[in-house]
Specification:
The complex is a heterodimer of chains A (389) and B (245).
Chain A (H helix, E strand, L loop, with lengths): L8 E8 L9 E8 L4 E5 L6 H8 L7 E6 L2 E2 L5 H5 L2 E5 L10 H5 L1 H5 L4 H14 L16 H13 L5 E5 L7 H18 L2 E6 L2 H7 L2 E6 L3 E6 L1 H6 L4 H7 L3 H5 L15 E3 L4 H9 L9 E3 L5 E4 L2 H5 L15 E2 L4 H10 L4 E5 L5 E6 H9 L17
Parallel strand pairs in A: 3-8, 3-9, 6-7, 7-8, 11-12, 14-15
Antiparallel strand pairs in A: 1-2, 1-4, 4-5, 9-10, 12-13, 15-16
Helix pairs in contact in A: 5-6
Chain B lengths: L3 H5 L2 H11 L4 H4 L7 H7 L4 H31 L4 H13 L2 H12 L3 H25 L3 H9 L4 H31 L13 H4 L6 H29 L9
Helix pairs in contact in B: 5-8, 5-10, 6-8, 7-8, 8-10, 9-10, 10-12
The chains are: A alpha/beta (389), B mainly alpha (245).
Chain lengths: 389, 245
């Protein structure tokens, strides 16, 4: 891919006043978005987040202050020229109904005067990048599903390799299942193309999922907190942010953690053919955390849980009485792991590493202790990587 | 005689009337005969010139009406406050009864085709203007927002996005305007502008064959134009027949 270009975006006391409005829609916004990061502007409706975003490509004219893309003030640029360097994705998608998918994707390159051949190649390349059948290139937007259309919307914004992408509630009109899929796809794409993205949403969960940084805004475009998702959840700057993030912020943190980030329990292990007395001995130790032994094979891969009946025999049987139930992986997102446990109505699940070997046991109890601990709310917890995809 | 229409038609009436009344064919004498095939066969060539005149007047009027209405629509699209006065002005023109309109213009522009074309183009204004505005207004805001955000200039948005998307409504307006102009053009015989009206008002009202032939030609004309414009619309808006699969 040729995608390399990305510029930082810097708001310097940027203000937008609408004639007749009692107070500015955005009042002296100062914010810096580093190149290559997704910055989510989140806040209740009417907080000025969309207005702030639109200042970047001058679809909203700045009244006072400035916005810099890279080192250049957008106020010095001719608006149409500026916009061709900035990707633009909106909730209603806004594909041109009278142009084919390929023509839609090639719209900005065409404005920039690219040669036909190059536009055609670029359209095909982008169709592939967003995972659409190249045959769809000759269709019209009305022939695509909503999810497909929004993918094309993203591809169209990326076509001329923009310095910055503006995305205004891009997945807001998509049904929840497809929204999740599109979010994941976009994160995967972003890991590859590393654009500077300004992403507007009113959905805090989406903000936490998508953002490298999140700016929580309230009326007048005032930034109440500008932080990474983990910081935001661990240490809300004030009551407004705390309320906006929600009472379940500790729970939301689970979406940012992986199973490997938490201290797992150790299961008493049993091997096929081992004397049950040995296994019983392990269970009687005072520090035992899991009350059932886990049967593993020679490679320490879990096979199943042993029940009282299994242990009544002299040696550990080859087929355990209780099924294994869900098996988690160290790289699983904590929230999904918890969902797995709850769905299977089980208290415990073995966790395996990438080779399939037992790494520990995750229990509902571990998670609830984590949620109740000061660690879940304090700064002391080691920073966690945002799960991509 | 004594028919006010024929009197108003002035010199157009005379010859035709005499010729037609002195019927020599058997069915022409029979007044209860609805359609005289023999007469039609013998006289069909007399419709050539009036039909051609009719066609010319229609084409000229619709063309002029379209150019003016389209220009007005583009102006009003850019200058919002012009919309109500323009709609009112074109609407007022439309409400003037056509016969009154013709006679009101006579002192200014005289008998003949010019007056006919002026009146008929004025009638098309309202329909074409209103449909063009409707088409432009129907373009989804999201499409215009995206176009602007992508760096299309206002002119590019108008010509590359809005007008192509307004094509179905614009052509719908042209279809109605053309059909009604073809019909009203039958009246221009009253100001000596020719057309197929000459074959209606100049004929013996007790002899319907001559009128029926003119009516049939007019109906064919309306159908032909409608088909032509519909085909043009299909070709110009291929995305509309592409439905979800």
């Amino acid at each position: 891919m040729s995608e390399q270009a990305a510029s930082s975006v810097r708001y310097e006391e940027a203000t937008k006043r609408y004639p007749g409005a009692p107070s500015p829609a955005v009042d002296g916004l100062t914010l810096e978005v580093p190149a290559g990061e997704i910055c989510v502007l989140v806040g209740p409706s009417g907080c000025g987040k969309t207005t702030a975003m639109r200042m970047v490509n001058r679809t909203v004219e700045i009244s006072e202050g400035d916005v810099l893309v890279g080192e250049d003030s957008v106020r010095d640029r001719e608006p149409a020229q500026l916009r061709r360097e900035i990707g633009y994705v909106i909730q209603q998608i806004g594909l041109f109904p009278h142009r084919t998918i390929s023509e839609n994707i090639g719209a900005v390159p065409q404005l920039l005067g690219w040669k036909k051949e190059r536009i055609r190649e670029r359209s095909a390349e982008l169709l592939e990048l967003i995972g659409l059948d190249p045959e769809l290139g000759d269709r019209y937007p009305a022939q695509l599903s909503g999810g497909q259309q929004q993918r094309v919307g993203v591809a169209r914004a990326l076509a001329a390799d923009p310095l910055v992408m503006l995305m205004d509630e891009p997945f807001g009109a998509i049904d929840p299942i497809n929204r999740e899929r599109l979010q994941n796809e976009f994160l995967r794409l972003q890991a590859e193309i590393r654009k500077t993205v300004l992403f507007v949403t009113h959905d805090i969960d989406e903000a936490i999922k998508m953002g490298d940084r999140i700016a929580v805004m309230r009326e007048g475009g005032r930034v109440e907190q500008y932080a990474t998702p983990a910081e935001l959840l661990m240490a809300p700057a004030n009551e407004f942010v705390e309320d906006f993030v929600g009472a379940d912020r500790a729970l939301k943190r689970l979406a940012l953690m992986r199973v490997r980030d938490i201290h797992l329990w150790e299961a008493p292990l049993a091997h096929v053919g081992q004397a049950t007395a040995e296994v019983r001995a392990k269970l009687e130790r005072p520090d035992v955390e899991v009350p059932f032994p886990l049967l593993v094979d020679g490679e320490r891969r879990p096979l199943g849980w042993l029940s009282e009946r299994d242990l009544a025999a002299g040696v550990v049987p080859g087929r355990p009485d209780s099924p294994l139930g869900p098996v988690l992986e160290l790289d699983d997102v904590m929230r999904d792991a918890l969902a797995d446990l709850l769905q299977h109505e089980t208290q415990y699940a073995p966790v395996i590493d990438h080779a399939g070997r037992i790494a520990g046991v995750l229990s509902v109890e571990i998670i609830s202790e984590f949620l109740g601990s000061p660690e879940a709310k304090s700064d002391e917890h080691p920073a966690v990587e945002r799960p991509h995809g | 005689m004594g028919n006010p229409f024929v009197l108003a038609a002035g010199e157009v009436g005379g010859d035709f009337f005499k010729e037609r009344s002195s019927g020599t064919l058997p069915c022409q004498a029979n007044e209860s005969h609805l359609f005289c095939v023999d007469w039609a066969k013998e006289n069909i060539d007399r419709y050539g010139t009036p039909a051609q005149q009719h066609l010319e007047i229609v084409l000229l009027s619709v063309l002029i009406g379209f150019v003016v209405a389209f220009a007005l629509a583009l102006l009003a699209h850019r200058t919002r406050w012009l919309q109500p006065p323009l709609l009112a002005a074109t609407g007022v023109l439309y409400t003037i009864p056509s016969i009154a309109f013709f006679f009101l213009l006579l002192p200014l522009t005289g008998f003949g085709r010019d007056t006919a074309v002026i009146v008929l183009s004025a009638y098309t204004l309202q329909i074409i203007y209103r449909n063009t505005m409707l088409g432009l207004d129907n373009v989804p805001d999201s499409v215009k927002d995206a176009a602007r955000g992508m760096g299309l200039t206002n002119r590019q948005i108008l010509w590359k996005v809005e007008l192509p998307l307004a094509t179905p409504e614009i052509i719908a307006g042209l279809r109605v305007a053309t059909a009604s102009t073809i019909a009203i053009t039958t009246l221009v015989v009253l100001i000596s502008a020719g057309g197929l009206g000459t074959e209606m008002y100049g004929s013996n009202f007790n002899f319907p064959t001559a009128i029926l032939i003119a009516v049939a030609i007019i109906a064919l004309m309306v159908l032909a134009f409608d088909l032509l414009l519909l085909t043009a619309q299909r070709l110009l808006t291929p995305w509309r027949k592409a439905r979800p699969r």
